């Protein structure tokens, strides 16, 4: 599995912890930045991750900012991206099973590292159900 990960300054420290966790799981990680916890613009990093996901250079993306909200808004501007803010395991599981989310967004100021790593594992380990009703609903996205 290949994962692209990015953050702004607010998510930098949590991103570093997630990267180490992914490496321990033997998951290939592409870190698109930011590279230091100095104020920066989150849409830049959201775009870098979404480009890799849409280009099929990675399987999934992870974005971290202060709340996860800004990253998800920026990521979801890209056609074909289904980014979800998840701050609990139920949401991480449901968004993969039902929505086939391809980008996980988290807020470093909302979840601590322990919970964040559990959310990452749940997101990565859950497959899209492929149920007809979910496929039908996802196909409606192209009409929006």
Question: Please, could you describe this protein's structure?
Answer:
This protein is an alpha/beta fold. The protein contains 6 helices and 5 strands. The chain has helices at 12-24, 42-54, 69-75, 89-99, 113-125, 132-139, and strands at 2-7, 28-31, 60-65, 83-85, 103-107. The protein has a 5-stranded parallel β-sheet, sandwiched between helices. β1 (2-7), α1 (12-24) and β2 form a beta-alpha-beta unit. α2 packs across α3 and α4 packs parallel to α5 (113-125). The radius of gyration is 14 Å and the shape is globular. The model has no long low-confidence stretch (mean pLDDT 97).
Task: Output the keywords.
single chain; about 140 residues; alpha/beta; 5-stranded parallel sheet; about 15% strand; globular
Chart the SSEs and their pairings.
Elements (H helix, E strand, L loop, with lengths): L1 E6 L4 H13 L3 E4 L10 H13 L5 E6 L3 H7 L7 E3 L3 H11 L3 E5 L5 H13 L6 H8 L5
Parallel strand pairs: 1-2, 1-3, 3-5, 4-5
Helix pairs in contact: 1-5, 2-3, 4-5
Structure summary:
By secondary structure, the chain is α/β, with parallel strands linked by helices. Helices cover about 45% and strands about 15% of the residues. It has helices at about 10-25, 40-55, 70-75, 90-100, 115-125, 130-140, and strands at about 1-5, 30, 60-65, 85, 105.
| Apparent shape | globular
Please give the number of β-strands. 5
Give the helix tally: 6
Instruction: State the distance separating the first and last CA atoms.
Output: 30 Å
Strand order, main sheet: write it out.
2-1-3-5-4
SS-derived structural category: alpha/beta
Q: Mind telling me the C-alpha Rg? A: 14 Å
